[in-house]
């Protein structure tokens, strides 16, 4: 769980902090502290001060593997979330996924990428770089220390209005078909994958791709993303790569099995209610598509959270998002979910729903 600080706007209009980290991985949400304008108060408790109806309803404590409060640095999130271990597992050949989810403006993109760098503005200070750039650095460091035994490539997609688009191919974004095969599971046909060897190269791909993402300005966040974005790093490694000499072009599978891991970063579009963001027309079509795929994701997670014996069919086919994430969610992958929340009293109900969603997600087990 990551709680962002109150923004200047929120402080200026007098929003209160209703989310507090208690240490030990617990987070406490309480609307009982003096109520701000956006706080919830039951009419009964206003008339009869001794009846604390709303207090009982909106006082909740949740437990998670890690909680990062407003003061936590980007580095603390990287080190404390298990992200470094995830990078190492990807090198070892596992499919690893990091999700950021939560309401629009809750800090998903910030957590993954740091403050959004536009090409005109100077790049963000190193301390503010997000989980992605820190993982790339870690990956390249490992690659160097292993004597360039790793081959790295990246692909970057967005799902916008239930269409999959390539963010790395030049020109206007083209729609790609999503297919299924027995051997590969769900996959995107003709998706561009770009090799990279340096930190600059991958940072550049990330910047180019994120500038192509569909964003639109609405009330909650000026740079709010209207699409789900998936950046996948493919890590191919050969155990004992040095043993493949030029004369033996064909690697012996038994002597040096090649491993192929992936590290996928998923920046989900914000969950939000149409009314709150002032969406209309085209925007509300977007919002409905976003909410539909998030709902499908939530549904899959709820079913996956059931004990194995009781599990029924998981409806991955309900949305493009769940198809693409099928392997990360239920298969053999290892997944880190970062739930981002705002501390503001005005976001109370969205915050509670994110926390419930995250609690369900926590019960899902995979078999790496
Ligand atoms: P989302 O991607 O969830 O819509 P953003 O990541 O764009 O939200 O964050 C919304 C705003 O809050 C941005 O201006 C961002 O810089 C700021 N912000 C988010 N998280 C933090 C944080 N942990 N520390 C400081 N500012 C943050
Ligand atoms: Mg975002």
UniProtKB/TrEMBL annotation:
One of the GO BP terms on file: spindle elongation
Sequence positions that bind ATP: 102-109
Alphabetical keyword list: ATP-binding, Cytoplasm, Cytoskeleton, Microtubule, Motor protein, Nucleotide-binding
Annotated Gene Ontology cellular component terms: microtubule; microtubule associated complex
GO molecular function, one term: microtubule binding
Pfam families associated with the record: Kinesin (PF00225)
Compartment(s) where it occurs, according to its Swiss-Prot or TrEMBL record: Cytoplasm, Cytoskeleton
Protein origin, superkingdom: Eukaryota
Domain Kinesin motor: 1-364
Family per similarity comment: Belongs to the TRAFAC class myosin-kinesin ATPase superfamily. Kinesin family.
Protein name, entry field: Kinesin-like protein
Gene: Kif12
């Amino acid at each position: 769980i990551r709680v962002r600080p109150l923004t200047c706007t929120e402080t200026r209009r007098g929003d209160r902090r209703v989310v507090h980290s208690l240490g030990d991985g617990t987070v406490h949400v309480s609307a009982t502290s003096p109520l701000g304008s956006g706080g919830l108060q039951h009419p009964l408790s206003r008339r009869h001060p001794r009846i604390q109806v709303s207090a009982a309803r909106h006082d909740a404590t949740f437990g998670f593997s890690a909680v990062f409060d407003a003061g936590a640095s980007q580095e603390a999130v990287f080190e404390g979330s298990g992200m470094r271990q995830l990078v190492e597992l990807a090198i070892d050949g596992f499919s690893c996924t990091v999700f950021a989810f939560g309401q629009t403006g809750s800090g998903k993109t910030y957590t993954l990428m740091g403050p959004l760098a536009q090409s005109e503005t100077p790049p963000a200070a190193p301390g503010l770089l997000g989980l992605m750039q820190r993982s790339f650095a870690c990956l390249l460091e490992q690659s160097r220390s292993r004597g360039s035994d790793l081959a790295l490539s990246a692909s970057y997609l967005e799902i916008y209005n239930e269409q999959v688009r390539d963010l790395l191919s030049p020109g206007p974004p083209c729609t790609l078909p999503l297919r299924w095969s027995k051997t590969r599971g769900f996959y995107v046909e003709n998706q561009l994958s770009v090799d990279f060897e340096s930190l600059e190269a991958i940072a550049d791909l990330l910047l180019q791709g994120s500038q192509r993402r569909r964003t639109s300005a609405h009330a909650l966040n000026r740079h709010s993303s209207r699409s789900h974005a998936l950046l996948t790093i493919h890590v191919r490694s050969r155990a004992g790569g040095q043993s493949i000499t030029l004369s033996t072009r064909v690697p012996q599978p038994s002597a040096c099995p090649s491993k192929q891991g992936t590290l996928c970063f998923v920046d989900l579009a914000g969950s939000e209610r149409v009314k709150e963001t002032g969406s209309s027309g085209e925007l509300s079509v977007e919002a409905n598509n976003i909410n539909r795929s998030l709902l499908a994701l939530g549904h899959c997670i709820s079913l996956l959270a059931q004990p194995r014996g009781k599990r029924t069919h998981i409806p991955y086919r309900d949305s493009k998002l769940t198809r693409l994430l099928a392997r990360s969610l239920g298969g053999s992958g290892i997944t880190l979910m970062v739930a981002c929340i705002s501390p503001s009293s005005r976001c109370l109900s969205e915050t509670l729903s994110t926390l419930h969603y995250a609690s369900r997600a926590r019960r899902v087990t995979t078999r790496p």
